[in-house]
């Protein structure tokens, strides 16, 4: 009943691709307050989906631009253990964020890497949901092996990565169930404590 009401409130901005019960359910689960508040937040997301960013088509684009050599897409597949769960492993420790952000703007990183990658995850989740008839989600594993300390990691953690996390929280509500960091170097704890 709530899903149908939400669908009615946002129907003018809702594309055929995104119009699934589970996509709408994620917004109902993840946004507090009355359904009008949920519709307002969802409408903002749908307007972005329909903008020049063309989010519905992002998952189809090949990952073959020069920027992708600096930020390779991790392994993604359906879990054999956790029900209706897409697992993605990002090799975060191998990404040279400092030089990446010297060569490309934060907007380029979002437009060419972060957003298309999130759309790939959404497409995988939607595929699992279509096959099982049940809601699915993502477990996002950040592999920090090979991460080298440099002073830029602090500003990266307090700047760009916070912006990316905020964007994901606003536009991919309830898509990622857990974020798990593995192979964490000892210095990362000190940076984490300094950030908080």
From TrEMBL:
InterPro entries: CRAL-TRIO_dom, CRAL-TRIO_dom_sf, CRAL-TRIO_domain
CRAL-TRIO domain residues: 122-195
Protein name according to UniProt: CRAL-TRIO domain-containing protein
A matching Pfam family: CRAL_TRIO
Lineage of origin: Eukaryota, Metazoa, Ecdysozoa, Nematoda, Chromadorea
PANTHER family according to UniProt: CRAL-TRIO DOMAIN-CONTAINING PROTEIN (PTHR47159:SF5), PROTEIN CBG07705-RELATED (PTHR47159)
